Amino acid sequence: MKSSAEIIIIGGGISGTSIGYFLMKHGAKNVVILEKHHLAWGGTGRCGAGIRQQWGSEMNCIMAKYSCEFYENANEELKYEGDIEFKQGGYLMLIATEKEREQTEKNVQSQNTLGINSRLVSVEECKEIAPLLNTEEILAGAFYEKDGHLNPFHTTQAFADAFVRLGGEIYKNTSVTDILVKSGKVRGVVTNQGEIKAPIVINAAGGYSQIIAEMAGFELPVHSERHNILVTEPVDAILNPMIMGFSLNLYCQQVPHGGFIMGRTCADQPKDYRVTSDSSFPENMAKTIVKLLPALKNVRMLRQWAGLYNVTPDNHMIYDQIPGVSGFYAACGFSGHGFMMAPATGQSMAEMVLGLPATLPWHRFNLARFNEGALLIEPSVV
To answer: So what's the pLDDT on residue 75?
Structure first.
């Protein structure tokens, strides 16, 4: 392992590899990514991998639109030898309450002004889009055909390969144990493989980002919480869009290999670093999904797992330099949506670190908002 670099990125998930790629693309030199296990080991490899532009906040819409458009051409942009498997079957957002109808109408209006051509759909149209749907509890829906699903492992590898091809280096099985700070400036990191000196360090450690920040004496306004997910056996293609319902508390997508990936928010999940499985989750998930998609009643579950959401008070990410530690940056707090926002994260952090003009409104995701009462509230999350 080298003893010095210009930029160190902590975290080999989708955010870290995207940041690495965009830094190299914009002319950075001598950049290394440190990953404590293997690429996509953390939240990236444990996520549902949905890609949606149907958000309630303007900022999330802007960042998601940029990211989705990047993903549409990512195989070519990243010169990936494989396929990131971007399936654009759309997201069907289900409305089950009048309050939800009111919010969704506002969301769609805002999305349309930003060039996201989502639309409100009737119960009958919901049934046309997803014929398996039991619509007894559905009042209406919203749909956008350009939303979809990606393969998280291939997508992370595509960014990593492009990063290395441009001259970056990745060190796996390399845990950061301390951040070197002197006179208010970051000086590098200490790892289980030795020290690496660098004037710039980027914290892209996902669910463990607050641990990394604490090494430099800073407390990030985030917490990590466990979220569960499961996948079924593969069956013939019977569901094209991602089904999502906020008040119904679910998301469900049939992925290209035929399995159904699904999840829901479970009460009383630990707000720490446990990624053990919740034994009550499969039964509760089955009850939730079979009521809405009865055809899945006899489809067998293959396995379940859990991952960490790194959550901020307003469910929006943090892109900023850590106050009082010059050269130490954070890209974290994605609140469960870091995978779909990764291209925007990479572009934004590269511009911030390299002092480039802003393509995206990344300055809005600063740390100051939490002290100034300028939160960016996102109403549409599961």
So the answer is: 98
In this prediction, residue 202 carries a pLDDT of 99
Burial class (CB in 10 A: 0-12, 13-18, 19+), 313: middle
Instruction: Please give the backbone phi and psi of residue 294, each rounded to the nearest 5 degrees, phi first.
Output: -60, -25
Residues 239 and 208 grouped into a single domain: no
Q: Domain holding 176: CATH number?
A: 3.50.50.60
* HEC assignment per residue over 72-135: HCHHHHCCCCCCCCCECCCEEEEECCHHHHHHHHHHHHHHHHCCCCCEEECHHHHHHHCCCCCC
Total count of domains within the chain: 2
Q: pLDDT value at position 119?
A: 98
Does 157 lie in the same domain as 301?
no
Whole-Å CA distances, 355 to 21, 59, 274, 349: 16, 21, 37, 10
Q: Which of 116, 43, 55 is nearest to 334 (CA)?
A: 43
Quote the pLDDT of residue 51: 97
Q: Alpha carbon of 76 to those of 81, 188, 339: distances in Å?
A: 9, 34, 19
* Angstrom distance (rounded) from CA 228 to CA 276: 9
pLDDT of residue 380: 86
Task: Report how far residue 334's alpha carbon sits from residue 187's, in angstroms, rounded to the nearest whole number.
Answer: 26
* C-alpha dihedral sign at 17, 335, 37, 362: positive
Q: What range defines the domain where residue 190 resides?
A: 7-48+153-222+313-372
Q: What is the DSSP letter of 363?
A: G
Residue linked to tokens 């699903």? 149
pLDDT value, residue 9: 99
pLDDT of residue 36: 98
Residues of the chain with pLDDT under 70: none
Q: What is the reported pLDDT for 86? A: 97
Residue 359: its pLDDT value, please? 97
| Residue 174: predicted pLDDT | 98
Its sign, for the CA torsion 61, 65, 71, 72, is positive
Q: Which ranges of the chain would DSSP assign to H, the alpha helix?
A: 14-25, 43-46, 58-72, 74-77, 98-113, 123-129, 152-165, 209-215, 281-292, 342-354, 369-372
pLDDT reported for residue 267 = 85
Q: Are 81 and 137 in contact (CB under 8 A)?
A: no
User: What secondary structure letter does DSSP report for 150?
Assistant: -
Residue 93: CB atoms within 10 Å: 29
pLDDT for res 268 = 86
Please answer whether residues 358 and 226 qualify as being in contact, where contact means their C-beta atoms are separated by less than 8 angstroms. Answer: no
